[in-house]
Amino acid sequence: MQSTWQTFMQDRGDGITYVDWVLSAWGWTLSIAACAWVLALLIGSLVGTLRTVPSKPLQWLSNTWVELFRNVPLLIQVFLWYQVLPVVFPSLQKLDTFVLVVFALGFFTSARIAEQVRAGIQSLPRGQFMAGSAIGLTRAQTYRYVILPMAFRIVLPPLTSEAMNIIKNSSVAFAVGIGEMVLYAQQAGAELSAEVPAYLIVTVFYVISAFAVNRLMAFVESRVRVPGYVGGSK
Amino acid sequence: MKKPLLVLAAALLAAGAAQADTLNKIKETGKVVMGVRDSSGVLSYTLGNGKYAGFHVNLCEVIVNNIRKDLKLDKFTVEYIPVTSQNRIPLVQNGTVDIECGSTTNNQARQQQVGFALTTFVTEVRMAVNAKSGIDTIAKLNGKTVVTTTGTTSVQHLRKHERGAGLDFKEIFGKDHADSFLILEAGRADAFVMDDYILAGNIANSKNPADFKVAGEALSVEPIAIMFRKDDPAFKKAVDDQIRALMKSGEFEKLYKKWFESPIPPRNTNPNVPMSAALKAAVANPNDNPMESYAKK
Predict the structure, then answer these.
(1) Does the predicted interface ipTM exceed a cut of 0.95?
(2) Distance CA A175, CA A79 (A)
(3) A186: chain B residues, CB-CB within 8 Å
């Protein structure tokens, strides 16, 4: 077994070792996940909030968004962004594959975050909106100063799962040739005839990454908790 | 509770200890499971509806049919299972596939894991490019994007070559040969580096074959062979004997002509790939030498 692990130290032919390569693959995985997470959080928060406003057109728009992106499998969405949309909209051809995958993963996750944010908002008593109006806040101000700060605290645990999921889901990027960790496992595994060790290595990296996100989110949770609310009593 | 566990443990031990005995398995089940490829050029490809064709598929059919005659089996079926570059070796190792008739390079690393029959095809790794791109040597790949198929070793040769020529190129990966060719066709890559017969097959089956050509110098010469489980000398001998007999009788060359120098289904295009000097040498002197022994020449 010793020698199998040592083969990963060797040069792959152009001055880069297989160890360097897995680190670069890890970088791709984390970059996709991080960019997609920012996009998903921004859009998901907006769409989730819009699902709770009184305006019918805005509700319709946000409902359509959620149903569109959560009813199509992620892998299919990635292929749609990569193979189909650039044919329909030639301007997308100029975009890097990385950007297309970030859109696919970000929009897919945004639909899930939107539902969580909606659930968080709707779990608050209706009286909070009334209290906002009573002290003279507009509806937007009520959301900004009363509703959303509480709703986000409530949905932090499911958001933690979502943040961990986005790291694991980024593995679909291999299907469109991005050099992330699953692609590394397949390609380096084949080049070294060491498929099993290659998969073991990337498994460890996935666990480390997802667990780091878990700890980070737990830290955020502990810093923002409000005594007496969900996650607030300890 | 304890007893079933013991039985299971004993069964697992027995399975681990038993030597692969494919001939016996074929005799008992009356069935051979053949691993085939969807898009390995002329060697193995799909016609749709679960039908497979190609030089290696045909060759394997002849071989297993002859083995069936030797075993005097009346009831006999051949089951076709499509495999990919990534799963072919595990599927052969775990017994899902008895005989793999795709496009597997026989090299020393793989010989540690599986067994190979006598070399039945020799390929050169080259590149397919857009005919108008002006790329005709490896040196012109500088600053370009190169696609290859995940789970294949072709790109290693380019990387090794790259250092000598001081090339700088971007690597991307298709999930299978058809996908890699699509990436080239869509203009996302400037060159597709792969075995020449796969390139020729994909070009022949593309929408506009005249738009693409195989170009550049050969990056490596690789022997391709039928693959089966390791440590099964009886089965290896049976397959090798059939191949040797086909080569001696001239039947092998007829099969080669049928697939490489005549119109082939589904489009009745002629691949027009005459037998290379390296393959002629392998026919004149049948052997199962790995790729590494070709590089030394």
Answers:
(1) no
(2) 8
(3) 86, 150-151
